Amino acid sequence: MPCYRCGARQTDPVRGASPWQRGVRNESQVLICPDCQRLHDLDLDSCSTCGSTALICRLGEVECRSCGAVWLARTSETLDPAPVAPPPGLSAEVEAALNRVLGRA
């Protein structure tokens, strides 16, 4: 899953905690790369109870990690999201990775 702001993709992590951050935007889980985390306005969803942006989204629910509030996420039909284009060069990278794994020349 790429960064929702810039489209950068995660690479294989080194040992330890990942520098990437999770967030919730439009009631969907998103990843935020280390460069975009430096921005002050990430436009993430916030908890209506405590205002925190430390949210997680799973199985159709959004949970606040600060206060524990839980609510149902709206369905994709009500959100009508704009289509997201894959990052440039993604298909070529996937093809190259498959060729390496499958031993193709």
Strand order within the widest sheet? 3-4-5
Runs with pLDDT <50, length 5+? Answer: none
Quick one: how many beta strands?
Answer: 5
Shape: elongated
Secondary-structure class:
alpha+beta
Portion of residues in helices? 10-25%
Q: Give the DSSP E fraction (strand runs of 2 or more residues).
A: 15-25%
N-C termini distance: 28 Å
**What's the total helix number?**
3
Mean pLDDT: 83
Give a short account of the largest sheet.
Answer: 3 strands, antiparallel
User: Could you state the order of secondary-structure elements as H and E?
Assistant: EEHEEEHH
Rg from alpha-carbon coordinates = 17 Å
Tags for this entry?
two-stranded antiparallel ribbon; alpha+beta; Transcription factor zinc-finger domain-containing protein; 20% strand; 105 residues; elongated; three-stranded antiparallel β-sheet; single chain; 3 helices; 20% helix
Can you give a write-up of this model?
With 105 residues, the chain is α+β, with helices and mostly antiparallel strands. The chain has a domain at 21-80. Helices cover 20% and strands 20% of the residues. The protein has three helices and five strands, in the order ββαβββαα. The chain has helices at 34-37, 76-79, 90-102; strands at residues 21-25, 28-32, 55-58, 61-64, 70-72. The strands form two sheets. The chain has a three-stranded antiparallel sheet, with no helix packed on it. It has a two-stranded antiparallel ribbon with strand order 1-2. β4 (61-64) and β5 form a beta hairpin. It starts with 20 loop residues before the first strand and ends with a helix. The model has no long low-confidence stretch (mean pLDDT 83).
